[in-house]
Amino acid sequence: MALWQGLAMTSDVSRLIGFYKSPLGRISRALVREQVMHLAGDVTGKRVLGLGFATPYLRFALKPAERVLAFMPGRQGASAWPREGPSCTVLCDPLEMPLTDAAIDLTLAVHTLEHIADAEELMRELWRITAPNGHLILVVPRRRGIWAQRDNTPFGQGNPYSGGQLEKLLRDHSFVPEAWRDALFLPPFQSSLVLKSTRFFERFGRLLGPAMSGVICVRARKEAFPAVPRRKRAERYVRLPGMSTATARNA
After folding, report:
1. Which of 2, 80, 223, 241 could form a disulfide with 87, with the two C-beta atoms 3.0–4.6 Å apart?
2. Residue 249's pLDDT band (cuts 50, 70, 90)
3. Quick one: three-class SS letters along 72-94?
């Protein structure tokens, strides 16, 4: 299976890890994770996939979920996760994931969509691996947000999206947006003043509206039939033990 085909240049895994270890990275992770957990709801007994570099936001699912996988793009590189116990990390091509059809109940994609050269093909692949009634959570930089304008964080890399662009991409590929959340109203500066005033920036930014946020989070539900058929590929997908087709489990 080709690891590199269809991927645009993205932050390597060392840079991502370094950011999330920094003071700004730790705060941004807490703020975004709060929105992700709200959108994910109860994941008890579900099969959860983190795509891109989603591991900073996946720990809440480790115990209650049936299983948790972390797929990282070959061009980005991968790191073992979690630190304790067997690694859940898989290095792969997001456009050809080693999963059977309808294998995943909930996918969380972070640092993914904005780095993919072929977003439409990624959406087709996400539709393929998602179980009936399953969900997809996308976390992407807001196109006109200040985080997308500065390249000192991973959210300033790649191609940011507006809410309208995200909604069209989802609906065009048979995902129905169900809930939207905004995060990162604080400026992306490693300044002690900014870091100490996080809650002030978050409260004040929300008063001014979603346009002031740096990140858009959306949860979408899979529709029964694909709007756009997948392109034919010569490669065959790898079957993972125990990942049989099933309907997503309701909370």
Report:
1. 80
2. low
3. EECCCCCCCCCCCCCCCEEEECC
